[in-house]
Write a structure and sequence with these properties.
By secondary structure, the chain is mainly alpha-helical. It contains 45 helices and ten strands. Strand 7, helix 36 and strand 8 form a beta-alpha-beta unit. The longest helix has 32 residues. The N and C termini lie far apart (123 Å).
Length: 1015
């Protein structure tokens, strides 16, 4: 029963082979220790089986060396016992060390002050003194010399004693992630003590060493006081003669011998295991350079030949051992150079390329397990943090820190990274470093690979003492999740477009000093530098996080604003937008972290007065700039679904209509932003603008029907209603400033009184126009019914039957022509289809038009050319009615449809460009004719849209005119992709295209008239 009881308890405590271990508890070496009463302590041990075996061996060693009382005393103390078990159960190497040095037990588990996480307190001075004492050197001497005959083994035994003391506390602390920075700092201090002791040994071996001062400059993790249990120790050596008895060359020779002996002390074969390799490859010229240099030689190298990565390496440099005064002079001299490195050409790009090379050199078989160098590993965090430090640390002294976690905190506090991202980076770095520590502790070997074996993963998982990590599969899951999260943060922050631009800025650019900034702003193209300074001051003054982030963004954004034709206007709009957003967290986070969002916003605000006026009124639009997919126009189905959901919560006609008008405003803004950024082409933008009008009219119709029924005191509609788009809306070719040409049709329901139905229908049509044009918080959309039968003199709406009668008996040719673009866009879909079926025979006559109707169309066109162009406007410059303009092309295409669509079904479309393409395919137009007409129509349409987007004008004659004003022409030219010096080329290109189109119009449109006359 006793064996079964022990077996059950041992299994619960985590033993893998409980039956075997139950028998081991009776080993003679453990007699009298009552290990069975401590089984609960094994539950927290990484490998209880290993711990028990090591404990037996340790007990045997203590018996032989007469240290059994010391061991018994340790086992009697709860903390010491737990730490001993934790150490023996995790690290075979440190367990073997204690077994071979049982006399060290009292030092490893000696009482003493502890930190909040239970890690023994200490500092670099304490470790220096104890290490020097261990090799028989006097810590008070300026240049201590070892007197210990077996100094190397004494140094190493002392080192492993100190490491074991930290590891024992680390493996049993309640929160290893919280303790990680302190553990790494303590390891680094112990390494620093070993370096001092190694130098003391070297001085005892090198004759004349008193004539040279040698300093060991710690680099990398050593410099940042964040070493692992086992790391190569990166160092650089700097030396100087101490007196005139040796010249510089002799002093450097002596210093090189000291450095070589130091290397032997820590890594050459000896009785005790080697500590680690001293890596001096970060020195000037790397392996090809001299091992030791004077301070002057170091400075000369860094000033003349050093590359960007070498300054990045200096970021963590600090004196670690030897002549500390000389080391401090080294730091004081070179530290300022570190913060100028980011100004070097291509610094950010080179840093990123270096990171990609490191990733590429990770062997494929290790890719998913590489904790340090692989994707999502420690290097991703370190490179991210260091790059931000070097770029922004030029102007912000708070970022000039060495420790990764301190730097993350500084970047967070300065607003350079989001609080949430900083918290994730902090947690993930602690987790990965703790995992790295546990992996290395097993054999105290340098390793950065997550184990793949089940037993190893289990051991590491049990040693983590982190919530949710107790088994091998759990630690593998957490590793993969953390790796993915780190990689995401690295790519989002490290590859910010803002960084290379920020790195290019000069100190004057960064400082935002008023005098320097005024000159710079003027040189960049700001017309009112003083006003710009006021905007900058308003945005950056104060100590808030918002102001801090603005101080990061503005030096770069000022240059991006200047890339547009109106930087002053762009900066003003940005100030208005920023003040409206206040301290809204997502806004500035989007600009800082949202990829190219900030640059895109600058281009939009400085290129378009329309966007500069309207983006601040719809701040959510800034979020669209992160992913260009959000700038793609919405489909009609998506808009319909949104509208249905929105108006379901509204009751009044005005609220319903305003919902649609808001959606139109939003979609116009989205489309304009996409068009300026080149995401949306001209054809897609016109279709999107048309859909925006359609959804507004659809909402207006819903509201109008509801209000008309309430006014008539009827429970519901007495007719079916349909809004038929005409003109450019019907062709899905609306410009931003186009009116919505429509006609209204209704069809009384069965049993309804036709007079009442007509009266209600007129009210619906009237209300629709009023709802679309009323003053509200949303832009108006003028609804124009003038293309209805009899034009302005006709009834506002007719029934389907009345339309049939009118088109059969009284319609004029221009009314058939207007029907060519008719398309239902709102209301009853079936009624809309019936209307289209009704008008098709009239707009696509089987035998074409008779000569009289062609002459009538030609006559009306001539009147339009002579009467409708505003006085004082050149006929060549009017984009709509001028020669070769929109009207010329559209009337030509429509005349061809009236003549040929009865024969060619491909011409039965509402889009002008589709008509021209169909005419070319059918041989009605030559390829050259179709190309000239399409080019002129496209360019005139584009110029009208750019007039609207660029100048912000939505009304007036200037919308339809090629700009004369050089400022307006420059804005339009920039939107079309022309340089400011090429603005007049826009005129030339359009006028050339219009001349060619007009020639085709003369040959085709007016030739039709001549042919009719001849017939």
């Amino acid at each position: 029963m006793r064996e079964q009881s022990y077996t059950s308890q041992l299994r619960k405590a985590g033993f893998v082979e409980p039956a075997r271990c139950a028998s081991l508890l009776d080993d003679p070496a453990l007699a009298g220790m009552e290990i069975g009463s401590f089984l609960a302590d094994f539950h927290e041990v990484a490998d209880p089986d290993q711990c028990l075996l090591a404990l037996i061996r340790l007990a045997e060693a203590c018996q032989e060396a007469e240290h059994s009382k010391a061991l018994a005393s340790l086992l009697g103390d709860s903390r010491s016992r737990r730490e001993l078990f934790g150490l023996l159960g995790m690290s075979t190497m440190l367990g073997d060390f204690l077994i071979s040095h049982p006399d060290r037990l009292k030092d490893v588990f000696a009482p003493g002050p502890r930190g909040a996480c239970g890690i023994p307190r200490g500092d670099q001075a304490d470790e220096r003194a104890s290490a020097l004492t261990a090799v028989g050197a006097n810590p008070s001497d300026a240049y201590p010399v070892s007197t210990e005959p077996d100094a190397i083994n004494a140094l190493r035994a002392h080192y492993f004693t100190r490491i074991a003391r930290v590891a024992a506390a680390d493996l049993t602390c309640p929160d290893p992630l919280e303790a990680m920075p302190e553990v790494s700092a303590r390891i680094t201090d112990i390494v620093g003590g070993a370096l001092e002791a190694g130098l003391a040994y070297a001085r005892s071996e090198v004759e004349g060493s008193e004539h040279v001062a040698l300093t060991v400059i710690a680099m990398g993790k050593t410099g940042a006081r964040e070493l692992n249990y086992v790391s190569d120790v990166d160092v650089v050596y700097v030396a100087s003669p101490t007196d005139d008895s040796v010249d510089e060359s002799q002093a450097m020779s002596l210093a090189a011998k000291l450095a070589a002996k130091l290397g032997q002390a820590v890594s050459a074969p000896a009785g005790e295991q080697a500590l680690w390799m001293l890596d001096a490859n970060l020195r000037p010229e790397g392996k090809d350079g001299p091992l030791v240099r004077t301070l002057e030689s170091h400075v000369a190298y860094y000033k003349r030949w050093a590359k960007g990565w070498e300054f990045q390496a200096l970021l963590k440099a600090r004196p670690a051992a030897g002549d500390m005064a000389l080391g401090q002079r080294y730091i004081d001299t070179l530290w300022p150079e570190v913060w100028e490195a980011a100004s070097r050409e291509h610094f950010v790009e080179d840093s990123r390329a270096m990171r990609r090379r490191v990733e590429a050199h990770v062997p494929h078989r290790e890719e998913g397990r590489q904790l340090k160098l692989g994707k999502g590993g420690l290097r991703d965090i370190e490179f991210t943090v260091q790059l931000l430090q070097l770029v922004h640390g030029r102007s912000d002294d708070t970022l000039r820190t060495r420790s990764t976690l301190d730097s993350v905190a500084a970047l967070r506090d300065g607003g350079y990274i989001a609080r949430k991202d900083a918290d994730l980076l902090d947690h993930d770095y602690r987790l990965l470093r703790t995992l790295e520590h546990r992996i290395q502790l097993q054999r105290l070997r340098r390793s950065h690979l997550v184990p793949s074996g089940e037993a190893e993963l289990r051991r590491v998982a049990r040693a983590m003492h982190c919530e949710g990590i107790t088994t091998g599969p759990e630690i593998d899951r957490v590793w993969q999740e953390t790796r993915s999260e780190v990689r995401r943060l690295h790519q989002a922050i490290y590859y910010r477009p803002l960084l290379p631009e920020a790195a290019k800025l000069s100190p004057d650019d960064i400082s935002l000093d008023q005098d320097a900034a005024k000159a710079r702003l003027a040189s960049m193209g700001y017309l009112d530098p003083g006003g710009a300074i006021n905007h900058i001051s308003a945005l950056t003054s104060g100590v808030s996080r918002t102001a801090s982030i603005q101080r990061q963004l503005l030096p770069v954004m000022l240059g991006w604003f200047a890339a547009g034709p109106e930087p002053d206007r762009g900066l003003l709009a940005f100030r208005v937008l920023s003040e409206k957003m206040g301290r809204t967290s997502w806004y500035l986070r989007t600009l800082r972290d949202g990829g190219a969002a900030a640059e895109r916003l600058c281009l939009l605000l400085s290129s378009s007065r329309y966007l500069a006026q309207n983006v601040p009124d719809l701040p959510e639009s800034v979020g669209w700039l992160v992913d260009k997919k959000d700038l793609q126009p919405r489909t009609r189905a998506e808009l319909d679904a949104e509208l249905a959901s929105t108006i379901a919560r509204r009751t009044s006609a005005e609220d319903i209509a305003n919902a649609g008008r808001y959606m139109r405003r939003r979609e116009l803004l989205r489309t304009a932003m996409g068009q300026v950024l080149g995401v949306v082409d001209a054809v897609a933008s016109r279709a999107a603008v048309s859909r925006a009008a359609e959804i507004a009219i659809s909402a207006g119709l819903t509201g109008a029907v509801r209000a008309a029924c309430e006014a008539a005191r009827i429970s519901g509609p007495v007719s079916r209603y349909s809004v038929i788009a005409m003109g450019r809306l019907g062709g899905a070719e609306m410009g931003y400033a186009s009116d919505a040409d429509v006609i209204f049709v209704h069809d009384p329901l069965a049993g309804a009184d036709e007079e009442e139905a007509q009266r209600v229908a007129v009210d619906v049509a009237t209300r629709l126009s009023r709802l679309m044009g009323s003053l509200s918080g949303e832009p108006q959309i003028p609804v124009d019914y003038d293309l209805r039968p009899e034009g302005r003199n006709g009834r506002l709406t007719r029934s389907l039957a009345a339309y049939a009668e009118y088109y059969e008996r009284w319609a004029d040719p221009w009314e058939y022509q207007a029907l060519l673009r008719a398309r239902p866009i709102a209301g009853d879909a079936e009624l809309g289809s019936e209307f289209i079926s009704l008008i098709d025979p009239y707009r696509y006559p089987q035998r074409g038009l008779d000569p009289a109707k062609i002459r009538e169309i030609q006559r009306i066109k001539a009147r339009v050319e002579t009467e409708r162009i505003p006085r004082g406007i050149s006929v060549q410059r009017h984009l709509k009615l001028g020669r070769g303009g929109l009207s010329d092309v559209e009337w030509t295409a429509q005349l061809l449809q009236l003549e040929k669509a009865g024969t060619y079904e491909s011409l039965r479309v509402t889009s002008t460009l589709e008509v021209l393409a169909a005419c070319e395919k059918a041989g009605i137009l030559t390829s050259e004719q179709a190309e000239h007409l399409s080019e002129a129509w496209n360019m005139a349409s584009l110029l009208r849209d750019m007039n609207f987007i660029g100048t912000g004008r939505s009304q007036g004659t200037k919308i339809d005119v090629l700009p004369h004003d050089l400022t307006d022409l420059g804005v339009v030219a920039a939107l079309l992709g022309f340089e400011s010096s090429q603005r007049l080329d826009v005129e030339e290109e359009y006028l050339r295209a219009a001349r060619r189109a007009r020639a085709v119009v003369e040959d085709v449109f007016y030739a039709q008239a001549r042919e009719v006359k001849e017939r």
